[in-house]
Amino acid sequence: MTSLATSQRSLGDPAIRYPLWPPLTTGCPSTSTPDLAYPLQVDYDYAAVDTALFTQEPGPDLARWSPLLPPLHAPTLGEGGTPLLEVDGVYVKDESRNPTWSHKDRLNRVTVSAALAVGAPGVVVASSGNHGASAAAYAARAGLPAIVLASAESPPAVQSFVRAYGARVLTVPVQARWPLMRQIVERLGYHPLSNVTVTHTGHPFGAEGYKTIAYELFLQLGRVPAALFVPTGYAELLFGVWKGFTELRLLGLADSAPRMYACEPAAGGPHGHALAAGVPAAVVETGPTRAYGIACEAGGHRGVLAVRESGGEAVPVTDEELRSAQRALGRAGLWYELSSAAGLAAHHKLGASFDGPVVCVATSSGFKDLGVGGEPVEIIDGSWESAEPLLRLRSGPYGGTR
0.90 cut: is pTM over it? Predict the structure, then answer.
């Protein structure tokens, strides 16, 4: 199936359009300022879309949605088609089932494709974990070198994960990652797969991969959900899912879109600050949090737009609220990193009821959490006398949860 992508459109001024190529990775040239970068989104020839596209079963490989994606030049690793599971009265979209165990695989199938299309000699990404691992995997699959700028605070296991794909990993202080990435882009011609601007724009093609979550949810539920709770760092995922539902309305397949909830660490929350102040985007100081995957100082206009136009809100969650949700998911047989529990944590905190199904997106595997594998292990001699006191530490006679 052929892509029907036609152009890039500014979110700073929707009347401004640019050619589809090359991807404008530094934001809209016409509306951005030194203090605020406006993202772009991809437009399509929607009149030419055959809506029979949405009669298929959701499954792996984003190529099944090719008409509504930029051209896919990178080979698949089997991304997408993730399960939808019911937990505590809500649905959990389990993105940990992607090839590198996170939602980032949807983005990188599209962005690495863009790097191939423009003839880039390689790709570069600044990432604390999931994004770097996914970018390295898709670059390796496509035969492109990858440079990953990791923060010193990212888990060693995740850095090993990235290196397994043959990427060059440079561990640098957090604030040094983006200036260095810009130099790699300028000096080596590598294609940037993550943000290079003062407020977040990211790759203009990236959110297109995320909107396939909306397509899958529509088919899995048989309807549009009433609300989506999304772990939010830079809000590419939030915006992408929202855009997918707006396209379903545009195509006449749905008559509504869900309320979108940006679930951010209480220690920062740039999108909540921007919404409260009535500004397009905000940069905030962040405090300590273990939810490193969504702990962002810089917000972007895409997240603000998705929350505001959907009638949702930004919900700040504390680490304790995240841990409680993470434990609840674990009791349901689902192991996610702390950041991934933000959707369920925000839903519990908000305590709102909705006229229809509620979906919490869970973004990545628990093995990527800080401190995983470092827990002390108590070794016993294997006798009943040594085991029985430990078994009684659990609720119930000899079972249940800690």
Answer: yes
